[in-house]
Fold this sequence. Notes:
The complex is a heterodimer of chains A (52) and B (478). With 52 residues, chain A is α+β, with helices and mostly antiparallel strands. Chain A contains two helices and two strands; from the N terminus they run H-H-E-E. In chain A, strands 1-2 form a two-stranded antiparallel sheet. The N and C termini of chain A lie far apart (55 Å). Chain B has helices at 6-11, 25-36, 53-56, 113-116, 120-127, 155-165, 215-226, 275-281, 295-308, 310-322, 367-386, 396-399, 459-476; strands at residues 2-3, 18-21, 41-44, 61-65, 89-90, 136-137, 142-145, 148-149, 169-172, 175-182, 187-194, 197-202, 206-209, 240-243, 246-255, 268-273, 286-292, 327-334, 343-351, 357-363, 390-394, 410-411, 416-418. In chain B, strands 6, 7, 15, 16, 17, 18, 21 and 22 form an eight-stranded antiparallel β-sheet that branches. A five-stranded parallel β-sheet of chain B has the order 1-9-3-2-13. A three-stranded mixed β-sheet of chain B has the order 4-20-19, covered by helices on one side. Chain B: This is GMC family oxidoreductase. Chain B: Its cofactor is FAD.
Amino acid sequence: MIAIAKLSRRSLVQAILALPAFALIRKLPAPAPDPDEIIEVNGWIVRRSDLA
Amino acid sequence: MIFDSYEAFRAAAFTPKVCIMGSGPAGITIARKLGAAGIPVVIFEAGSNEWTEESQDFYRGTTVGDPYFDLDVTRLRYLGGCSNHWAGWCRVLDAHDFTPKAWAPDTGWPIRRTDIEPYLKEVHDILDLVEFRPDAPISDDISWVQFIKSPAVRFAEKFYGDLDKSQNIAVVLNTYVRELVGDGKRVTGAHIWSNGADAGQFLADYYIPCTGGLENSRLLLWSNERSNGGVVPSATALGRYWMEHPQFEGGNAILADYDEFEVDRTNEVFFSPTPAAMERKQIMNFGIRLIEMPYPGVKRLIADLACVAPDTAEWAAYQLSLNLRCAAQLYVGWEQAPDFSNHVALSKTATDHTGVPRIELNWKKRDMERRTILEGLKLFGETMVAKNLGRVRLADWLVNGEDYPTDQELAGHHHMGGTRMSEDPAKGIVDGDCKVHGMDNLYVGGSSVFATSGQCNPTTTIVCLAARLGDHLSHKIV
């Protein structure tokens, strides 16, 4: 309570506004892997799309 | 003139200016150049005109380090030398093989490929070659390259008549130069061993050991020891930087179209890295050889692929139904980085019948060699995928980081270095003219002068360098 009391009203509003944005970032899905990427799997050198 | 013994040669009262030791491709090529220029020359050949157990015994030795061939099996000691068991594969070192590489210490020659190219035409005649096809890049990383599978000229057979008829060349069989004598500025004589006994000293104006990529080091190490440094005054690198071409099966490939590349007469195709790819990956040169894979092996390979990429395996199975020839074994032969610690030494315990110490070869493949085969195959695999040419599978021993297999070819029987070419006497034995540093009349012929090994079989380059040395001496000796 003491820490919050020391925050300015402006800082407090900015922090509250930022919260949903952080939540959105956390929920962002991992970027889709490039199907043309060349990878090595069990010794095979293949295109990622080969694995489908 | 060909003599069966040193005694017969002496009786002929022929007085050569140049003494060549060894009648392999280097020795015979240099002698023919000098003879054609009217310069009298003798070739002392330690063996006779055919293989004998007694002569081969001189080549016995030991190897310390990685598994290697028996030293009396990996070379031949009779007229024609190693050309008698050569497979005939021909290619000249690449231009970039001659240039220094920042990522590999002690690389680079004092000469460039352009210095030996003027001799290529006569080398084509000597080795009965067709014209080389230029390398063809198939990606930024990989080029399709050519080895000419030549008829494998046996130098003793091809040139016997010319040598026998020549008035300027004497070939003396069964005559072993067991030691050169020097005073630190010149070689002053050659100790001859003939008919099981010391036959005294032979004198000439110039001396050229051409006894092979192991034996040149042995002869000069022994001679230098006996002359207290009078034969190779700057001997730091003598016997050092010895190199081979490691050769192992590194994987397999399934190909979209085996006929995409023109195969040679034994159905093989070769690929090498571009200089830019070598620099980016910090690796040495290599050659990947595609050998057609037998049908049962192809089926197993496709089954293995199905575990990783079922749809791609179906595509591969379709390729197999169209053409039984759709997969290959990938054999890799590659360049060993020059390393001071890989060296030819004189045995402290074993000698040949004449009392000359046998060879102790110290040879190991190191991290650079491992990286070259692994990264090289990955480069090739990536090109195959990117260009939709096929798919590559690396061998298990490479993927799992296991030791090199011991049941494969091991190496190419290519003995290089030991008397390497460098302008720096601390890093090499001969200069750009193949002359021993500090000596006025001692030159070296053969692959022992190679500063680096490239990825290709050495004979074509050996003959180019020999033709160049013969030319150089022809102008020098008047």
